[in-house]
Amino acid sequence: MTAVTTVPATLAVSAERTPVPTLLPTAIVGSLPKPAWLAKPEVLWSPWELEGDVLVEGQHDALRAAVQEQELRGIDIVSDGEQTRQHFVTTFIEHLDGVDFENRETVRIRDRYDASVPTVVGAVSRRKPVFVDGAAFLRSQTDRPIKWALPGPMTMIDTLADRHYRSREKLAWEFATILNQEARELEAAGVDIIQFDEPAFNVFFDEMKEWGVAALERAVEGLQAQTAVHICYGYGIKANTDWKATLGAEWRQYEESFPLLQRSSIDIVSLESHNSHVPIDLIELIRGKKVMLGAIDVASHEVETPEEVAATLRRALQFVDADKLIPSSNCGMAPLPRQVALDKLSALSAGAGLLREELTRASA
């Protein structure tokens, strides 16, 4: 592996950018599989195979490879593939004061599976930036627009035990303020789209309506970068697929959050679609927002054909204008075999290309 020097954010921001296609720019939601030398393949949240400075070096090499694969396979809005994180929530939390990772408790996550989680034992605070160095390194690796994901405040509180605030709402507001601090520094590092992952919005409807969306608004306050919220039905793991099997013929959970998000300041709403039971017409509820539509199934090893991807996207055009549609994946792809995930990226790009050509011909 080659040692890497992080490029200062000010230098990275000044780099000339490759323009994104006006129609159907592609992006992935979050994670990609890590190389086997960095973490055990096809295992969600697997421990690192490296330690110390060698781990940092390996994470940089993995991030560089993830960027290169996205570019080679036609992804227009590039992300880090979460190559420097074990977990999409707790990797952020472990850098905060007030959280004890030794004093763990078992809690119910998303109201569907039990997990051992850290405990909030004091006032939470962020001593220093968490992901800014990683974002600056990502910015130095590509001239394409970049997207960085953070956990949303409501999903953060659902991934912890709380022995200090003893109020989910109070803790969510504290996390929202911390996330806003981080997001502002990610923006300064050259991040074009800052995404907040809120799968909890699909479960805790009353809390989401009472203060969840408001806490998300606090997290994005004052940002000039585009903002996105990702709400899905989870990784392709058994706990999630078993839960989805109980949801019936139509998954209408988005009906609860979309009207609030349509009136919010969030720019982009990311949702699951391909091979799901989400009625496509629910997209109408966020009319006017950009829609990051899942056209890749992360719960299956079968690689979509470009025609299947194009068909999923085409159906959505009844409810979202073409210039507001961002083809994407349903969720993160960390648990998939690496080659399968990469082939799915190619399918996403090719499918978006088919529909882009079709729309261009129609408007000529």
Please describe what this structure looks like:
The protein has helices at residues 9-13, 52-72, 90-93, 132-141, 153-157, 168-188, 205-219, 238-244, 254-262, 306-316, 338-363; strands at 78-79, 96-109, 113-126, 146-151, 161-162, 193-197, 226-231, 268-271, 290-294, 325-328. It is built from eleven helices and ten strands. Helix 2 crosses helix 4 (132-141), helix 7 packs parallel to helix 9 (254-262) and helix 10 packs across helix 11 (338-363). Helix 10 links the parallel strand 9 (290-294) and strand 10. The longest helix is centred in the C-terminal third of the chain and has 26 residues, at 338-363. The chain is globular. The protein starts with 8 loop residues before the first helix and ends with a helix.
